[in-house]
Design a protein that fits this description.
Number of strands of chain A: 0
Structural class of chain B: mainly alpha
Order of helices and strands of chain B: HHHHHH
Largest sheet of chain B: none
Helix content of chain B: over 70%
Number of helices of chain B: 6
Oligomer: heterodimer
Largest interface: A-B, 70 and 82 residues
Shape of chain A: elongated
Shape of chain B: extended
Distance between the termini of chain A: 56 Å
Chain lengths: 100, 171
C-alpha cells in the first residue's frame, strides 16, 4: 500500500499546476480547464483519505464534487460562448470593462 | 522498492507531465487533450485506491462528457488567435512566487510536522464497491443526492438560456 504522503504530494503538485495555469494563462477556456484540474486534485486526496480511513464517505463526496463540476462546466462554457458572441474575444485581459 | 510504489511513481509522472503539458501548450485543444490524459491517469489512481465506482464516474463524466463539452466549445469558437503581447507583465512572476511559497508551506507541513491522523484500518472486502456506495448514498446522503438533481436541472436551464441568443419575434 502506497503511503498517503505520496498522494498528498501528487495532489498538491496537480493543484499547484492548476493554480499556475489559472494565474498565467489568458485563454478563458484554458483557465476553466485548470479549475477542473484543481477540483480533480482535491478529489484524488478525498479518495486517498477514504482509503486511509476505510470510510466510504470520502468517495461519496467525490461523487458530489463531480456532479457539481459537471453543472459548473455547463453554465461556465455557456457563459464563455455568450461572452464570445457579444465581445468577439475570450482573452480575459481584454474583458476588463468593470475596471471603469 | 515494491511494485505498488513503482506503479505509483510511473503513474504520478504521467499525471504531472500531462498537467504540465496542459499548462505549457500554446493551443487550447492540446491543453484539452493533455487534461483528458490526466483525468484518465487519475481514474487509474482511483482504481488502485479501491474506488471502482468513482473511477468509472471519472472516466464517463470527466474524461467523457465534460471534456467533450470543452472540445466542442473550442471547436465552436476558434480560440487560437489571442493577442501576442502580455499586458500584465507582473502577473507571471507573482504567480511563480506564490506557487513556490505554496510548495514550501506544503513541504514544511509534510516533512517537519508530518501526518498525525494516521489510521490503519483493516479493509472490508467490498470496500468502495458500487453496492456499498449506493447503500450509503441512498441512506445517509439521501438529501444531498436529491438536491443534486435540482442543481443539475438549474444548470441545464441556465446553459440553454445563456446560449440561446436573441430570436426574432414571430407574429
Amino acid at each position: 500500500m502506497v503511503p498517503v504522503e505520496n498522494y498528498i504530494t501528487l495532489s498538491a503538485l496537480l493543484f499547484v499546476i492548476g493554480a499556475l495555469a489559472v494565474m498565467t494563462r489568458r485563454n478563458a477556456i484554458v483557465i476553466f480547464m485548470a479549475i477542473e484540474l484543481m477540483l480533480n486534485s482535491a478529489n484524488l486526496l478525498f479518495v486517498a483519505y477514504a482509503q486511509q480511513h476505510a470510510a466510504v464517505d470520502g468517495q461519496i463526496l467525490v461523487f458530489f464534487v463531480i456532479t457539481v463540476a459537471a453543472a459548473e462546466v455547463a453554465v461556465g462554457l455557456a457563459l464563455i460562448v455568450a461572452i464570445f458572441r457579444s465581445r468577439g474575444t475570450i482573452d480575459i485581459d481584454d474583458l476588463s470593462q468593470l475596471k471603469g | 522498492m515494491d511494485g505498488n510504489l513503482i506503479t505509483f511513481y510511473i503513474l504520478a509522472a504521467v499525471a504531472v507531465g500531462a498537467a504540465l503539458g496542459m499548462l505549457f501548450s500554446k493551443s487550447a485543444i492540446y491543453s484539452a487533450l493533455f487534461l483528458i490524459l490526466n483525468f484518465a491517469v487519475v481514474a487509474v489512481f482511483y482504481l488502485i485506491l479501491g474506488a471502482p465506482f468513482i473511477a468509472m464516474a471519472q472516466v464517463t463524466i470527466y474524461a467523457g462528457a465534460i471534456m467533450v463539452l470543452f472540445v466542442f466549445v473550442i471547436m465552436l469558437i476558434g480560440t487560437e488567435q489571442l493577442a501576442r503581447e502580455d499586458r500584465l507583465i507582473w502577473q507571471k512572476p507573482l504567480a511563480w512566487i506564490l506557487v513556490v511559497l505554496f510548495i514550501f508551506a506544503g513541504a514544511y507541513q509534510l516533512l517537519l510536522v508530518g501526518i498525525t491522523d494516521r489510521v490503519a484500518v483493516a479493509f472490508p472486502g467490498d470496500f468502495g464497491s458500487p453496492v456499498e456506495i449506493g447503500e450509503v448514498l441512498f441512506s445517509k446522503y439521501l438529501l444531498p443526492f436529491e438536491v443534486t438533481s435540482v442543481l443539475l436541472l438549474v444548470a441545464m436551464i441556465g446553459a440553454i438560456v445563456l446560449t440561446k441568443g436573441k430570436r426574432k419575434k414571430k407574429i
